[in-house]
Amino acid sequence: MGSILSTLLRSLVPTIRATIPSFLLTFISKPKPVHPLQTYQFDKEAILKRYEAERAKRLRQDGVAQFQTARDGAFHRFREDVASAPAREPTHAETKVLIVGAGFAGLVAAVKLEKQGVQDFLIVDKAAGFGGTWYWNQYPGAACDVESLIYLPFLEETGYIPTRRFCYGPEIREQVERIVTKWDLARRSHLSTEITSVVWDESILRWHVNTNHADHFITQFVVMATGTFHEPKLPGILGIENFRRDHFHSGRWDYTITGGDENGNMDRLATKTVGIIGTGASAVQLVPKLAQDAKKLYVFQRTPSSIRFRDNRLYDPAALSASLRPGWQTQRMTDFANILTGAVVDKDCDALEGLEEFTMRAILKEGTVAGVTVQPDQIPELMQLADFRLMEQIRKQVEETVKDHSTAAKLKPWYSFMCKRPTFHNDYLAAFNRPNVELVDTNGQGVSYLTETGVVANGTEYEVDLLIYSTGFDFDVEANFYRRTGIQLVGTKARTFDEKWDEKGPSTLFGVHIREFPNLLYVGPAQSGVTANWTHTTYAVGDHIAEFVAQCLRDERYQAFEPTEEAEEDWGRQNEEGSEMRLQFAQSCPPGYYNREGKPEEIPARWAYFPKGIIAWTKITREWREEGEYRGMERR
Asked: What whole-number distance in Å separates Cα of residue 177 and Cα of residue 190?
C-alpha cells in the first residue's frame, strides 16, 4: 500500500508544480542550508579502506607481549635512576597519610591535604627528585603539550607565570620545586625509596608499609598516586641483551653519553651514528634535537604520529599577571574541559589551540554560522566528517613540509585522530629534510632484531653507535598492579589488589575508593574524572581525597572506611555506559597503548574513564562529600 501511495504522489508532482506561481516555486525549491562539513568532498569508502589496511598489517598475535618490562632480569638497568641513591638508616614511623608518588598527583594531593589542615603526611617515591614523569623524562626537547597556564600546578598560589605557552622540562621542574618549597614538602618525603609492600592490619585498622630501605611505616590512609609514565617499556626483540654499543631508554636519558643538556647541544654525538626506535610523543620532541647534533640519525618507525604545528609563543608575565583575577587557573581548567566536551560555554579558550576544530562546540558553531541547527542524530556523521577533514589537513601538512615524496608518504598517518596520542611540534617533520636524517619505515612491522652493533629492519642492518628506545612506558591497563609498581598490595581478605581486580576489572567508588582496601585512595584514570589535561584530574581527585580524609579525621567515631559492594557495582555500571561505542572505535584503530596493541576487546568495560566527564564527576563527588553521610561506605 505504501509503495502504491508513494508512486501516486510522485505522479502528481508535475501537476502540482504547474499550478504554483513561479516566485513561490523558487522560494519552495530553495535548498535548505547544509552544514559546511557536509559540503566537503571525501571519498569516505577509500579513506576507511586505507585505515583498515594500515590497521590490519600492524596487528600481531602477541599483542602487548611484543614488549617487555624493564623491571626485572637482564633489562633492569634500563629503569635505574641515573642519580645514585644516598645511603641512609631505615626509618620506622607512624603517620596519618602516606602518599605513594611525588609526581603531580602526589604533590597535588599533599598540597590539598595541607589546605584542609592535614599536615601529618609522608611522601615516598623511588625517584631521587620530585616531579614524577618530569623527573624521569629529562631528554632534550621535553615539553608539555597542554597549555602551561592550565598544566603547571598551583600557579596562582605560587605567583608564577610561565615564560611560554608550552614550557619545557626545566621550567616545569622549577615549578615543582616552588611547590615543594612553599609547602615544605621535602621535610616530609623519602626519595630514592621504593615501596615493596602495603598490607592492611585489621587488628589496628592501619596499613603497614615496607620499603627497599627496610623502612616500616604505619599509616591510617594511603594515597596511591603511582602515575603511569615512569616504568620504561622495551621492544620485545632479540638482541637487546647482546647489543655492544651504547643504548638507553628515552625516559632515563644519559648525558654522560650524549653530552649537552635538555636544550640540546649534544656535542658527543657530532661523530656518532644514532638510531631511535619509536615515533610517539617523546620521539617527536627528541628527533629535532638529535637531528641537529648527530652525524647521522636513523628514525625507526612502526606507525607515524599525527603531527600538528602550534604557536608556542612567549608570554609577557607582568602583563598577563595583571590581567588575571582570583581563581583564574581553576576556571581556565574548567573552561578547557567544558569546551573540549561540547558543553555550552559563553567564552573562547585559546588553550584549545590545535584541538578546537575537532570539538563538538566547534561543529555546532560552524553550523550556526551557516544557518544550520545540528540535530542529535546528525552528530555521529558530523564528527566523522570533522575527523576526515582534520586528518586530511594533517596529511597535507606532511606533504607540504617534507620534500622527499617517498618519505612524506611514509610519515602520513592513516587513522582517526584520537586513535593515537596527538602530537604537536613545529620542527619534527622538517627534520626529515636534513641530509643526515633517514626515516626507516618498517611498514607497520617494527624492527626485527639487534645485532651486536646495529638494528635490523626490512632485512637491512643499520649500524649505530648509540641506540635510543623511545618506546613508551608500561601503560597496559590490563597489566597487574604489582608489575607496574613493584608493590605487593594486600587488603582485608588477604587478597592482593590484582586478585580483586582480576575478577571483573576495576571495582571502585568514584575511581578512588576500593572495597577490601579500607582507607586506600587510588589516583588513576579508571572510573575517574578524566580530561585531556591530567593536572585538572589531579586537582579534582586531590580535592576529593583531601576533603574526605579531613572529614574522616574529624569524625573520631570511625577509623576505617571502604565502599559497599552495592556502591561499587552501581558505579561500575555507570562507567560501562557507552562501552560498546568505545570498543567499536578502538577496534578501528591501529595497535597502540590506547587499545591494548589492537586487542581492545581484552579490556573490561569498567576500565573506562567516567563517561560523563570530569565536570560531572567533580559535581557528583562534591555533593557526596557535602552530604556528610559517607553514602555507600562501610565504617568501623
From this structure: 15
Count of alpha carbons within 13 angstroms of residue 26, beta-carbon side: 2
Q: Which residues pair with 97 in a beta bridge?
A: 121, 221
Lowest mean pLDDT among 134-148, 224-238, 295-309, 442-456: 224-238
> What's the mean pLDDT in 95-124?
99
313 vs 576: CA distance, rounded Å: 41
CA-atom Rg of the chain in angstroms: 27
Distance CA 579, CA 601 (A): 10
Helical spans, DSSP H, in 295-376: 317-323, 328-340, 360-369
Rounded-to-integer distance, Cα 168 and Cα 166, Å: 7
Cα of 279 vs its chain's centroid, Å: 16
Pairing of strands 189-190, 121-124: parallel
CA–CA dist 505, 497 (Å, integer): 11
CB 402 within 8 A of CB 411: yes
Nearest to 471, CA basis, from 455, 489, 495: 455
Taken in order 150, 264, 298, 400, is the CA torsion positive or negative?
A: positive
CA distances from 41 to 36, 47, 385, 386, 548 (A): 11, 12, 10, 12, 54
Instruction: Tell me if 184 sits within 8 A of 367, measured CB to CB.
Output: no
Residue showing cell 614488549: 67
Which residues have C-beta within 8 Å of that of residue 510, sequence separation ≥ 6?
527, 528, 544, 571, 617, 620, 621, 624
- CA dihedral (429, 433, 438, 444) in degrees, to 10, reads 40
Distance CA 151, CA 144 (A): 8
* The pairing of beta strand 92-100 with beta strand 216-224: parallel
* Residue corresponding to grid cell 603526611: 121
**Domains of the chain as residue ranges with CATH:** 92-231+479-584+602-635 (3.50.50.60), 242-309+384-469 (3.50.50.60)
On the question of pLDDT at 15 being above 90, the answer is no
User: Which residues face 514 on adjacent strands?
Assistant: 517
Question: CA-CA distance, 536 to 151, in Å (whole number)?
Answer: 8
Residue 350 pLDDT greater than 90, yes or no: no
pLDDT at position 206:
99
